[in-house]
UniProtKB/TrEMBL annotation:
<dbReference type="InterPro" id="IPR045028">
    <property type="entry name" value="DinG/Rad3-like"/>
</dbReference>
<comment type="similarity">
    <text>Belongs to the helicase family. DinG subfamily. Type 2 sub-subfamily.</text>
</comment>
<dbReference type="Pfam" id="PF00270">
    <property type="entry name" value="DEAD"/>
</dbReference>
<dbReference type="GO" id="GO:0005524">
    <property type="term" value="F:ATP binding"/>
</dbReference>
<dbReference type="InterPro" id="IPR036397">
    <property type="entry name" value="RNaseH_sf"/>
</dbReference>
<keyword id="KW-0547">Nucleotide-binding</keyword>
<keyword id="KW-0540">Nuclease</keyword>
<protein>
    <recommendedName>
        <fullName>3'-5' exonuclease DinG</fullName>
        <ecNumber>3.1.-.-</ecNumber>
    </recommendedName>
</protein>
<feature type="short sequence motif" description="DEAH box">
    <location>
        <begin position="463"/>
        <end position="466"/>
    </location>
</feature>
<dbReference type="InterPro" id="IPR006054">
    <property type="entry name" value="DnaQ"/>
</dbReference>
<keyword id="KW-0378">Hydrolase</keyword>
<dbReference type="InterPro" id="IPR014013">
    <property type="entry name" value="Helic_SF1/SF2_ATP-bd_DinG/Rad3"/>
</dbReference>
<dbReference type="Pfam" id="PF13307">
    <property type="entry name" value="Helicase_C_2"/>
</dbReference>
<dbReference type="InterPro" id="IPR012337">
    <property type="entry name" value="RNaseH-like_sf"/>
</dbReference>
<dbReference type="GO" id="GO:0008408">
    <property type="term" value="F:3'-5' exonuclease activity"/>
</dbReference>
<dbReference type="GO" id="GO:0003677">
    <property type="term" value="F:DNA binding"/>
</dbReference>
<dbReference type="Pfam" id="PF00929">
    <property type="entry name" value="RNase_T"/>
</dbReference>
Length: 931
């Protein structure tokens, strides 16, 4: 069947079964890979078109006044689909509407085979940044003249489909053969399409970039010996050639403005390296700190032929370094250098594990089928095997864990998979590199675990260093939850379930003795029961403890810090007994795995089966160690332990955590005293221009550490107005609803002045949710697009892009939006900070660290809570001004910044800006004049 009919509909909303109707139909016909026909009509929906649909599509009630109803043209539309595939970008939406309208018109519903271009694009272009039609067409360079008009959308969907066919034609035979194995679980009826290209590609010309092994096709990875690099420049001349007038930076960048602080930072880092000292450098927004630290790091690494490790907190900054800063530096300097990115094993795919999974009978699960299909195509493109290059469906990450390099047991260089391992290639690249870019998590794992993950290094630069202490704490602590334990026990399974044990047994004719089978099945059932029982009891324990707390609110996630000596002895004895019983069953399961291996040893026992059983043993042993550490060992002085539950979640969904109360000594002994020079940098390291807080938290010695603040090149006094209302209701006196109302009222007043273009930062998701609901209520005619974290769907980056595409939009964010969100220029003119970002006083880590400081005779508020809040506040403040031409207002709804004794620490920790403390009405008048 070579006829494809592409459809796109514009509708009054998303619910055909309720009251929504079609207002425009666009159809395009493809035959022999050519667009041969098209059809378009407006339709009268017999109801008003909502204003936001008119805004989106440009179709108004006037446009459809004389248009036919769907019933009048139903037969005409049905006839177009005779003997053809139906194609749409999200088939369930278009076909759902079409069939609802056909049924309402007493016509037969369409039952054509379908091809969904969203699904096929996810499979065939897995690295695309988004699968929305607009973004896909931009990525694939398809001309799209009228987005959100049916015929234009149908035309670009047709062109997208032709690109998808081109991509299929380019894939290796082995890849398409594997795609055919999972096709039956896809939504698209793609069997004929895949089968046609499999036959076509059987005798295709050999592609030298693709290798195949045991039925898998993947991109070849060639790591030869790298060229040697030399420098014939002094460091001073090197910096002159980059930073000074007529230097390479000025030539490479349009509108180059010299930043004195950037060169100064490069010099400080080089000096610290030469003197073998550590350094803390706060480089305010606009310094250009990434370039400032890369330039000396590269010079030093090439000169000494010794690597420098650069660690970031976010993958976003890693991408920026690799995709923007490193290519720019290659243009700036006259010698070559080598850079590698290295992440933890869990990020890299294992071809061996994937191949083993593909051999097993697959469970019918759409997400897993889609995940496998995406990965098979991605393998023909990726040079790194780093799964972060693609966006898997949410439950696809569970499947990826099974096929990640983390699941490979030991390293056997004689294995045929060894030189095909993406993780081993990444390690080898890192060993050959001058600069190794990694993340704080891997750096910490490497720091505290004897198995060396990073190649040997003496000098490191830690960017986003304000997160370093928290990452160290997490990595030195532990996390255990019901879902993870339940998943592991389920993956092992009974002997009669299609899980790991059953799969292993299916490889042997002799099988297990009946006794071993019965023992194993009883043990796995008991372990599952005990796990569920323990976590249900812990859930109820947290609920009961929290009910005794008068200030407790049961919204969202509930945390409870536990200390053995302070718990109810009777109830705690029950918990300890339940934990001991579960540990007993887990130990028996380990013994059971040994029995299974012993039973099967009479045949040739397969290496991969041995590995699978060993991996199971190790995971069970980890659970035993963690349960003992959490419940049976009392070290409350050194550690904080807590439980978290979702108040309205499953009654066994409990998360258990443990972290050290203080990491200063750990870092001093295990890191700073063994490394020659560590540079820690961030835009926010000081409170009131002092580094004392961060130095104490990280255990840095004052005499061995260089400290430097580098001021921003921006003229904040001219670019920013800081406004604080003096007439907001006081939350302290239970006026939360009134406070939220006043906040929303101010947001809409400011939005009218700035045409939206506003970021609102909250400290609690509950307040964000309530404000979002109230703003929708107060807003007339949906004047502003409201984009809210956790309510609007999409990642942080996606929400930011959506915000930038609307002319008038308000972006509401919490937690991760306080930093790393870069919205330069006129897209952002106003920043609203709803509350000063103090952690809730009952947060387990804050509570424990406060007690720890109290015992040392220190003031926990001044030594911990306040500095953390100030650093967070500085991060939030930094969202507004991202270039020398930006202007804007920072509106702080929390008057404590002026009225509280500690307010001055916040004000003195940001650049000097005019501060206005006045009534809301007066502030609005001043804002209007200023803009």
């Amino acid at each position: 069947m070579q006829r494809y009919v592409v459809i796109d509909l514009e509708t009054t909303g998303n619910a055909p079964a309720k009251t929504d109707k079609i207002i425009e139909v666009g159809i395009v016909v493809i035959e022999q890979d050519t667009i041969v026909d098209s059809y378009s009509t407006l339709l009268h929906p017999n109801k008003e078109i909502p204003p936001f649909i008119t805004n989106l599509t440009g179709i108004s009630d006037d446009d459809v006044m004389d248009a036919p109803s769907f019933e009048e043209i139903a037969d005409e539309i049905s006839a177009l689909f005779a003997d053809s595939y139906l194609i749409a970008h999200n088939v369930p939406f278009d076909l759902g509407f079409l069939n609802e309208e056909l049924a309402n018109s007493n016509r037969i519903k369409l039952t054509n085979p379908v091809l969904d271009t969203v699904e096929l694009a996810r499979i065939l272009f897995p690295s695309a940044p988004s699968f929305k039609l607009n973004q896909l067409t931009e990525y694939l360079q398809i001309q799209h003249d009228q987005p959100h008009r049916a015929l234009s959308d149908a035309f670009v969907t047709a062109k997208l489909f032709l690109k998808l066919k081109e991509k299929l034609a380019s894939l290796p035979y082995e890849t398409i053969d594997q795609l055919l194995q999972v096709e039956k679980w896809l939504q698209s009826d793609a069997y004929e399409l895949f089968a046609y290209y499999r036959e076509q590609n059987l005798f295709a010309e050999e592609n030298h970039e693709i290798a195949t092994y045991q039925g898998l096709a993947y991109r070849r990875i060639n790591i030869g010996e790298l060229d040697s690099c030399t420098i014939n420049l002094s460091f001073g001349d090197y910096l002159d050639s980059i930073y000074e007038a007529n230097g390479s930076l000025e030539k490479a960048m349009q509108k180059y403005e010299k930043r004195a602080g950037q060169r100064e930072m490069s010099e400080i880092i080089f000096d610290a390296f030469q003197m073998k000292q550590h350094a803390l450098i706060e480089a305010e927004t606009g310094t250009g700190k990434s370039l400032a630290y890369l330039i000396p790091a590269i010079y030093d690494a090439v000169c000494k032929d010794k690597r420098v490790v650069i660690s970031t907190y976010t993958t976003q900054l890693q991408s920026q370094l690799l995709e923007a800063e490193i290519p720019l530096i290659r243009q700036l300097i006259p010698f070559s250098f080598h850079v590698a990115l290295l992440k933890g094993k869990a990020h890299y795919i294992s071809l061996e594990k994937l191949q083993q999974e593909l051999l097993e009978p697959q469970q019918s699960n759409y997400d897993i089928a889609l995940t496998i299909a995406m990965i098979l195509v991605w393998l023909t493109e990726t040079e790194t095997g780093d799964i972060d290059e693609i966006q898997l469906p949410s439950s696809g990450y569970w499947f990826f864990r099974r096929i990640s390099a983390d699941m490979e047991e030991g390293v056997d260089p004689s294995s045929p998979w060894f030189f095909r391992s993406h993780y081993q290639h990444a390690k080898r690249r890192a060993q050959q590199a001058h600069i190794v870019i990694t993340n704080h998590a891997l750096l910490c794992t490497d720091m505290f675990h004897p198995s060396v993950l990073l190649p040997v290094y003496d000098r490191a630069i830690i960017d986003e260093a304000h997160h370093f202490e928290a990452t160290v704490s997490k990595h030195y602590g532990l996390k255990l939850d019901y879902m993870h334990m339940h998943f592991t026990l389920n993956q092992l399974g009974r002997t009669d379930e299609q899980k790991l044990i059953h799969t292993v047994l299916s490889h042997y004719t002799s099988g297990l003795s009946q006794k071993t089978k019965t023992t194993w099945d009883t043990l796995i059932d008991d372990a599952r029961y005990e796990t569920d029982d323990l976590f249900r009891y812990l859930f109820q324990y947290v609920v009961d403890q929290r009910k005794r707390d008068k200030s407790y609110s049961d919204i969202g996630r509930t945390q409870y810090r536990f200390e053995q000596t302070k718990e109810d002895p009777k109830k705690w004895a029950v918990i300890k007994e339940m934990v001991a019983r579960l540990i007993f069953y887990l130990r028996d399961l380990i013994h059971g795995l040994t029995m299974i291996e012993a039973d099967l040893q009479q045949e040739q026992f397969l290496h991969e089966d041995k590995e699978k059983l060993l991996a199971g043993t190790e995971r069970l042993q980890t659970f035993i160690d963690q349960l003992e550490q959490l419940f049976l060992v009392d070290n409350s002085m050194q550690e904080v332990k807590w439980m978290e539950i979702e108040t309205y979640g499953a009654k066994n969904a409990v998360y258990l955590y443990s972290e050290p109360t203080d990491v200063a000594d750990l870092l001093m002994d295990g890191f700073f005293s063994v490394k020659e020079s560590v540079i820690l940098t961030s835009a926010t390291l000081t409170m009131e221009h002092s580094f004392r807080f961060i130095m104490d938290r990280l255990g840095l010695q004052h005499e061995q550490t260089i400290t430097k603040q580098i001021a921003s090149p921006f003229s904040y006094a001219d670019q920013v107005q800081l406004m604080v209302p003096n007439d907001f209701p006081n939350i302290k006196f239970g006026q939360t609803d009134d406070f939220i109302y006043a906040t929303c009222d101010a947001i809409l007043s400011l939005a009218a002045i700035t045409n939206g273009r506003m970021l609102v930062l909250f400290t609690s998701y509950d307040m964000l949710r309530r404000s979002h609901s109230l703003l929708k209520e107060l807003m007339e005619n949906d004047t502003y697009a409201l984009i809210a974290q956790g309510i609007s769907s999409g990642s942080r980056e996606r929400l930011k892009k959506n915000f930038q595409t609307f002319d008038q939009a308000i972006l509401l964010g919490t937690s991760s939006f306080w930093e790393g969100v870069d919205i330069p220029g006129e897209d952002l003119s106003c920043l609203v900070i709803v509350r000063l970002p103090f952690q809730p006083p009952d947060h387990p880590v804050l509570e424990a660290k406060s007690n720890f400081l109290k015992e040392q005779g220190k003031n926990p508020f001044m030594e911990y809570s306040l500095p953390n809040a100030v650093i967070r506040f500085k991060q939030g403040f930094g969202r507004l001004i991202r270039s020398s031409s930006d202007r804007g207002i920072v509106f702080i709804c929390d008057s404590r910044i002026v009225t509280a004794r500690y307010g001055k620490y916040f004000v003195r920790s940001i650049p000097e800006v005019p501060l206005l403390f006045d009534t809301t009405h007066n502030l609005m008048e001043k804002a209007e004049k200023w803009f």
